[in-house]
Design goal:
It is built from 22 helices and 21 strands. By secondary structure, it is of the alpha/beta class. Helix 6 crosses helix 21. The protein is globular, with a radius of gyration of 30 Å. Bound molecules: adenosine-5'-triphosphate. Adenosine-5'-triphosphate (ATP) binds next to helix 9.
Length: about 675
């Protein structure tokens, strides 16, 4: 049996309800369960009674030393008190609030480990958690205790029990994946032991060893997938060597409404070189907000067209897909390119038509959301995919194309500055290009941090910009009142208020809860300047390009991270007019204040990214939002960067050795690659 395919419902006590909650936590198989690692630990090693400090949280092992009693106050409130004695014979009282049922368990002589606040004057402990000591059973208190993310009916205790059960019953089925010589070389404990220790640590040292081993394993398997995929890719399916003449490139440049910056020209050359070669391109283009990356994406797609193939541009939202589609059509159709749009909200009939064009090769450049990755999409001859780092476009997604018979070049676009070494470990042998120059004539964006009492003054300023023919974004954190959080502005109310404020101008409302067609309509009217003020949540954060907009006003700016504020500010200052960013905020933390100051002080995304790291730590910076960066279960890309490098090098030498594919020592890994669909199973394999 394989744990990766065995559902958690095989465990006693897991019925439909719990199965659902576990599913919400991302646990559906036994493997998910045993690799559901704690996110932190609490040191609850028991202390001797004489060392307890007044007012602090303590853990002690005690024996119940007399009858426990319950006092009720009103119908619900109760206090349970039991006399107890510590192992070094100090007499104390253990106090439970509102848990009258514990009384029945507190039989004299019963041993229990309690954790809670110690009051030296009353000689009592207010119990926060307790664990009865059962002879011969592992207890979770009195040691380092794992803390898990839990939900509803899946309590920490239940989760620990489920994990304990599956490790006990199915532990033997956990395959060892790391080859012996590597385990020896890096002194890694074996997998089963590591999994036991990570959930039920004995000491901080054994816990450390377990973490080290599991982080290595996670990074090693990640690298293995990445590199094996490339290896197979190169050997079995070379990329397209695009045929592109200098004249065609010159013609492209001439069609542009502007002259490319030096940086754009340099990166364009790098892309052309890559695409001419047979080795599939794997390039990351990094450039700050508004630096002009889009035209490079269009160039790559155009090169595919010139060679008789297709280019796909994959973007994170429908708003962006629409925007890129319009811009691509405007630029490329005069060059004879047929552009197509594919997004989830299209009507069946329209979708069918687009799919047919894609399959027949009538559409040359296809722009879309993840809808492009769906099964029904068949390309005629796809030779380049352009995507961004927000998009999860890893081995799995490439496999989708490979199974369809394509080995496209890949170009990633990113406005998030990822340090080069880190980028290499994440994306493998990735080439990096920098667009480190803004288009000429850009005026710096003036940034102001104001407190809410200056709101009216700011709105008057916004109105003066509108009077000059410009447009404005007004962004706030929430969509509607039902989400009400004290003191936080919601878009629906703000919209109503601003309609009055900006009488004579059109105000529009945009947020994630609108239907796709509504969003599209609002956005189109804003682009066409039928709407002058767009009240929005952060759905407009990435990539939106309306160069006539000169004001970005953000309500409750303290609720956004630096990277997000920088992206929002990047929506203005994209044209010839001077622009302003107004951050309205009354931060209640020092870090919040620091963020506002940093935004005022610099407009450089790299500097802000570093500041963000410093203020929030790597976990959050590389966290949820940058979803293109893989989220690891246990490894931390910044803290454990060294382990990632070692894993990367070891995988490289494994894969390069011919023995890798044949020796039994590696068979588990090869099996793993098949399970992960990196190696395709073929008849006769
Ligand atoms: N060389 C140039 N000269 C003048 N304008 C340019 C140049 N390159 C791009 N632009 C214009 O600058 C604006 C921003 O460019 P683009 O949308 O490509 O930025 P981006 O790098 O994708 O930014 P973001 O990361 O914010 O999406 C667009 O209106 C684009 O037409």
């Amino acid at each position: 049996m394989t744990l990766g395919t065995t559902p958690v419902s095989v465990l006693p006590g897991v019925g439909p309800q719990r199965l659902r909650t576990l599913g919400l936590l991302g646990i559906s198989t036994l493997l998910d369960l045993i690799t559901y690692y704690p996110f932190r630990y609490e040191d609850r090693n028991a202390q001797p009674g004489r060392e307890l400090v007044h007012g602090s949280r303590v853990t002690v092992r005690v024996t119940v030393d007399g009858a426990a009693g319950v006092k009720y106050r009103g119908r619900r409130a109760s206090t349970t008190i039991a006399p107890v004695v510590t192992e070094d014979y100090r007499r104390l009282h253990a106090v439970w609030f509102n848990q009258p049922y514990v009384k029945d368990q507190l039989k004299p002589g019963r041993k229990v480990t309690i954790t809670g606040k110690y009051d030296a004057n009353r000689r009592s402990i207010t119990v926060a958690t307790h664990d009865f000591v059962v002879a011969g059973e592992t207890v979770h208190s009195d040691r380092i205790v794992p803390v898990y993310n839990v939900k509803a009916d899946i309590t920490p205790k239940l989760l620990r029990n489920l994990i304990a059960q599956s490790v006990k019953t199915y532990g033997g089925e956990i395959p060892e994946l790391i080859p012996l010589q590597l385990r020896q070389k890096y002194r890694l404990i074996d997998r089963l032991e590591a999994i036991r220790e990570i959930h039920f640590p004995h000491t901080s040292d054994t816990l450390h060893q377990a973490r080290r081993r599991l982080i290595f394993e996670e990074f090693f398997l990640f690298q293995l997938k990445l590199q094996a995929f490339r290896w197979v890719h190169r050997h079995e399916q070379p990329g397209v060597a695009h045929d592109v003449t200098e004249e065609a490139l010159a013609q492209f440049a001439e069609t542009l409404p502007f002259a490319m910056t030096g940086a754009q020209r340099r990166v364009a050359q790098e892309i052309v070189q890559d695409m001419r070669g047979k080795t599939p391109m794997n390039r990351l283009v990094q450039g700050d907000v508004g630096s002009g990356k889009t035209v490079l994406a269009f160039l790559a797609a155009y090169i595919a067209f010139l060679s008789g193939h297709q280019g796909a541009i994959l973007v994170p939202t429908e708003i962006l897909a629409e925007q890129h589609f319009r811009a691509a059509a405007e630029l490329l159709e005069p060059l004879g390119v047929k552009c197509a749009l594919l997004v989830g909200s299209q009507k069946d009939k329209e979708r069918k038509e687009v799919l047919a064009e894609i399959e027949a090769g009538a559409a040359n450049v296809i722009i879309g959301t993840h809808a492009l990755l769906e099964e029904g999409v068949r390309f005629h001859s796809l030779s380049v995919v352009i995507t961004d780092e927000q998009h999860r476009f890893g081995v799995e997604q490439r496999s989708i194309f490979r199974q369809k018979g394509h080995a496209p070049d890949v170009l990633f676009m990113s406005a998030t500055p990822i340090p080069r070494t880190l980028a290499m470990s994440i994306f493998g042998d990735l080439d990096v290009s920098l667009v480190d120059e803004l288009p000429a004539g850009r005026k710096p964006i003036q940034t102001f941090w104001i407190t809410p009492d200056k709101e009216e003054r700011s709105l008057r300023f916004v109105r003066s910009e509108l009077a000059k023919g410009r447009q404005a974004y007004v962004v706030c954190p929430l969509v509607e009142e039902s989400e009400k959080i004290e003191g936080v502005v919601n878009a629906t109310d703000l919209y109503e208020m601003l309609k009055d404020w900006f009488a004579g101008f059109q105000v529009g409302l945009m947020h994630g809860k609108l239907r796709p067609t509504e969003k599209e309509d609002v956005m189109r009217r804003f682009v066409d300047n039928e709407i002058q003020v767009l009240v929005s949540t952060t759905v407009i954060e990435v990539g939106v390009n309306v160069p006539n907009t000169t004001v970005m006003m953000v309500y409750n700016a303290e609720r956004f991270g630096l990277a997000q504020l920088h992206q929002l500010r990047g929506r203005v200052g994209r044209g010839e007019h001077a622009s302003t960013c107004i951050l309205m905020s009354k931060p209640d933390t020092e870090a919040g204040e620091e963020r506002m100051k940093a935004m005022v002080a610099t407009q450089n995304g790299f500097v802000l990214a570093e500041k963000d790291l410093e203020l929030r730590g790597p976990g959050e910076f590389f966290g949820v939002r940058q979803s293109g960066i893989p989220d690891f279960k246990i490894g931390d890309l910044l803290h454990d960067a060294k382990i990632m490098q070692v894993a990367r090098d070891e995988v490289q030498s494994c894969i390069r050795s011919p023995e890798f594919w044949t020796l039994p020592n590696y068979s588990q890994l090869v099996e793993y690659l098949k399970q992960e669909k990196v190696l395709l199973e073929r008849a006769g394999d």
